[in-house]
Amino acid sequence: MATTEYSDLWKRLTKALREKGLPISQNGIATMLDMSQGSVRRWYTGEGLPELKTAIVLAERTGYSVEWILTGRGREKPEQYDDLTTDLLQEWARLTPEMRLHVLGTAKLAHAAQFTGDPKERDRVQREMARFTESMRSGGSVHDRRGGSR
């Protein structure tokens, strides 16, 4: 009886499932996903790929990325962020392109100032950041903070 060489997809999938202590047999995976063993067998042989909804479920259950599971490309696991970074990214998404430029400029100033021994430079950065914070509270624009009319 000939043995079938398993696919690269199968190798990645079983690696991800094994790490989480989930079933790695065709039958076990089919049962876990409530689907036919025939569908799972096509992944094993390389004759098919999981549907996108199924790949997303597999990624969520294993902690591996959909792209890596399906193709072997990209990061194996999505980047994990702490709460502060997650909050920062959510706020960033709400900013206009103009405000993003200002935030980036202020961050670069703050970064440079933390490495300088010049107290005047640190004071200047703190004043700029305070102006930015106040402008954000009042809904102003970058031009307002640079001394333009309100």
Quick summary of this structure?
This protein has helices spanning 8-19, 26-33, 37-45, 52-62, 66-71, 83-94, 97-114, 119-138, 142-145.
Low-confidence stretches: 142-150
Name the helicity range: 55-70%
Series of secondary-structure elements, N-terminal to C-terminal: HHHHHHHHH
**Which class of secondary structure composition applies to the elements?**
mainly alpha
The CATH class of the largest domain turns out to be Mainly Alpha
Strand content: under 5%
Shape: elongated
CATH superfamily of the largest domain: lambda repressor-like DNA-binding domains
The number of helical segments is 9
Number of strands: 0
What do we call the CATH topology of the largest domain? 434 Repressor (Amino-terminal Domain)
**Main sheet record:** none
Average pLDDT works out at 84
Tally of structural domains = 2
Distance between the termini: 82 Å
Provide the gyration radius in Å. 25 Å
Second CATH tier, the architecture of the largest domain: Orthogonal Bundle
What oligomeric state do these chains adopt?
Answer: single chain
